[in-house]
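Our collaborator T.R. sent over the components below with a one-line note: 'Predict the complex.' Nothing else. No constraints on interfaces, no templates requested, no preferences about which chain binds where. So this is a plain run: every listed entity goes in together, and whatever single assembly comes back becomes the starting point for the next discussion.
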Amino acid sequence: MAVTVKKAKTDSIINAVQEASGVDLSVCFQCKKCTSGCPVAKLVKSPPSEIMRRLHLDAGDELLESDILWMCVSCETCSARCPMGIDVAAVMDALRHLAIKKGASKQEGNVPLFNRAFLKTVQMFGRTYDIAMIAAYKIGSLKFANDTEKFPTMLKKKKIALLPSLGADRKTTKRIFKKAKQKKEAGK
Ligand code: SF4
Ligand code: SF4
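Returned assembly:
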């Protein structure tokens, strides 16, 4: 029996994602290697391979409400594992941008606060600085006592540095943030 492949509408999400990410999504053959390596796959309703499949099926704006967009930690494991060289993490980024642009974003819990704290410290110190980020997050969330029991072990194992990195290129980072702000203001 002949199979009819429906051509994506020009204003479809898949076109917008391909344009924003520069990724050719058509080569995905659903091997699910992206999902098997994704640290949040078991916590979300649609793991990365399913997002890819739904994009192929010309999903509508409901795709922008997927919880993985705000659970994804941008570790890029999916991109590294994809045998077709698809940058799945870039697809997630593109979907996040679209979700914000279309007002469809459903950022769960304190995810927006965490994102702001992270970006602010990168902007200020040129690289992520854990102590400042934790302080900003705790002040914002008012959950001062949460997870503090892990702090001594993390310090002992050098998972957290008390001082910001001296090797960070703060000038370049500031320039990147400035450019991103200008692009945002220009609506690009
Ligand atoms: S690893 Fe690549 S080819 Fe396999 S399902 Fe994921 S995106 Fe598709
Ligand atoms: S970048 Fe996001 S989607 Fe990809 S493996 Fe990491 S958490 Fe999962």
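Summary for T.R.: Confidence is low (pLDDT under 50) at residues 1-10.
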